[in-house]
Amino acid sequence: MQIPTSSALSQVWSRIHPVPIVRGEGSYVFDSGGNRLLDFTSGIAVTSTGHCHPRVVEAISAQASQLIFGQMNCMLPDIVSRYAEQLRSRTPDSIESFFFSNSGAEAVEGAIKLAKVATQRTNVIAFDGGFHGRTALTMALTSSKGIYRSGYQPLPSGVFFSPFPACFRYGWDEEQTVDFCMEQLRHLLKARTTAAETACIIVEPVLGEGGFIPAPTSFIEHLREICDETGILLILDEVQSGFGRTGNMWAHEPSGVQPDILVLAKGIASGMPLSAIGASDHLMEKWPPGSHGGTYGGGNAISMAAALATLEVIEEEDLVHNARVQGDYLKHQLTEILEPLPDTDIRGPGLMIGVELTHNGKPNARLTSQLQQACHDADLMLLTCGTDSNVLRWLPPLTVSRDEINEGLSIFEASLRKVALQ
To answer: How many Cα atoms are found within 13 Å in the side-chain-facing hemisphere of 68?
Structure first.
């Protein structure tokens, strides 16, 4: 739905709800017309602690009265050091130090730069259906939808794509799908970019914009094996899947794999702009001082305070566990509700759940759009995703309660009856 033509805002933004939002609280937002909406978008996995969590608001307010900004090349705000230490204790053992930026795209681009300078290699391997951002380089890494690249090409070169193990799309079991994808990756390394010229492999443990498709554990394990064999660095893009979203602190945890570089953003600071690149001290030491930077990044002390408070809330309120429990319940209930539609795939760990709608084996974007709109008309906000725009994604805040889940499910079931089960 487009914004009104009289608006002073660019029309390049599309949005679900056209009426200005004036307030948010927990799982709900309130618009200027007096409507209350159940927000199961979480700002695309950003407001993980819910809208305006009191602890986060308090931290922002307190920091604003002390130091708002301290540019990292000029000074080191104390809050940056404190947050980095806390984040290090919660990331994999291979991640020892951090570079902070403003957005996920900035962090991905910085991670690629780090990989190139550390390996002295030029090329990058990404995966079909991945989304890594909207800068020139991150668009070059992105293949989830053509609109993200259309009109901006040619994009930076040296990027090669390999198949992602989307079992439902291929119609194979997990083992067969992973075997095929690994064969294709090894072929790519023989035919289009050799290991000697490939700096890194970048992958989302759960495809985001590409359809909320979890990578099988064995696939992440095999990627680690290939990287160990060849000296290629493994970058895990946890921009959307990190900070408890999947029922683990990090989506790749079940694999036991240690990334060379970890990219974080979105849920990192409950809505304040911040992202992070994490790597070993050994890798970071190969990044010459002054060869990468940014005006804001870690210098935004308010974002840092919000990030520190977010970590504390996630742990003290046991939100990772809540995401797992509520996500299992949500997925089970969705499976029952959607039983009359046999061509449906319900997938995803924790509170990162995708519902892919098909008909006779073909993507059903029309029904997906109708269902999203019917839910919105009943005050439930859901997003769509996928190359064919036929996946509904469920992204409640990690603080979501069982009653709120049931409220959303009730609206969804009634909407489904209205548009598909008449």
So the answer is: 2
- Average model confidence (pLDDT) for the chain? 96
Pairwise CA distance, residues 404 & 227, whole Å: 43
| Residue 402 · residue 330 · CB < 8 Å | no
Tell me whether residue 288 is exposed, middle or buried, using C-beta atoms within 10 angstroms of its C-beta: 0 to 12, 13 to 18, 19 or more: exposed
Residue with tokens 């307030």: 23
Measured CA to CA, the distance from residue 296 to residue 140 in angstroms comes to 25
CA angle 162, 168, 172 (to 5 degrees): 80
Please list, in sequence order, all residues whose beta carbon lies within 8 angstroms of the beta carbon of residue 279, skipping any fewer than 6 positions away: 94, 95, 96, 97, 114, 260, 261, 262
Angle at 389 between CA 386 and CA 393, to 5 degrees: 65
Q: pTM here?
A: 0.96
Average pLDDT over residues 38-56: 98
For residues 371 and 411, the answer to whether their CB atoms sit within 8 Å is no
- Could you give the CA distance from residue 34 to residue 18 in angstroms, rounded to a whole number? 13
Side-chain-side CA neighbours of 337 within 13 Å: the count stands at 20
Nearest-5° angle of CA 207, CA 130, CA 306?
A: 65
Which residue type sits at 48?
S
> Taking a C-beta distance cutoff of 8 angstroms, is the pair 281, 88 a contact?
no
Residue type, 307: A
Peptide bond into 154 cis (omega under 30): yes
If phi over 0 gives left and psi between -120 and 50 gives alpha, with beta otherwise, what is residue 244? left
57-106, pLDDT tens digit by residue? 999 999 999 999 999 999 999 999 999 999 999 999 999 999 999 999 99
- Report the C-alpha gap between 87 and 398 in whole angstroms: 19
Distance (Å, whole) CA 365 – CA 352: 20
Degrees, nearest 5: CA angle 413-414-417: 90
DSSP conformation letters of 177-245? HHHHHHHHHHHHHHHTS-GGGEEEEEE-SEETTTTSEEPPHHHHHHHHHHHHHH-PEEEEE-TTTTTTT
